[in-house]
UniProtKB/TrEMBL annotation:
It is a multi-pass membrane protein. It is an enzyme of class 7 (translocase). It comes from Megaleporinus piavussu. This is NADH-ubiquinone oxidoreductase chain 4L. The keyword Transport applies. GO terms for molecular function: NADH dehydrogenase (ubiquinone) activity; oxidoreductase activity, acting on NAD(P)H. It catalyses: a ubiquinone + NADH + 5 H(+)(in) = a ubiquinol + NAD(+) + 4 H(+)(out). The gene is ND4L.
Amino acid sequence: MTPVHFSFTSAFMLGLMGLAFHRTHLLSALLCLEGMMLSLFIALALWALQLEVTAFSAAPMLLLAFSACEASTGLALLVATTRTHGSDRLQNLNLLQC
């Protein structure tokens, strides 16, 4: 395993562990998701550069577009839950009360 591969794998795993174990605020969950998407984007871009195939050059941009849509949806949910519940703490959210 190369050091570059190890660093992107560890960055993705740290984001995944942060998402799994540190679930107090919705904003921290969104930041962990963005960290995971950033590590996937950089790894996919480097993979496309190493293979030198033009068919894979659009894949990182497509992933970046999907991560931007995910970020905007997450921020819209953050604003909506903060307005309705008064906080972004995940313990205050209950799906049965919606």
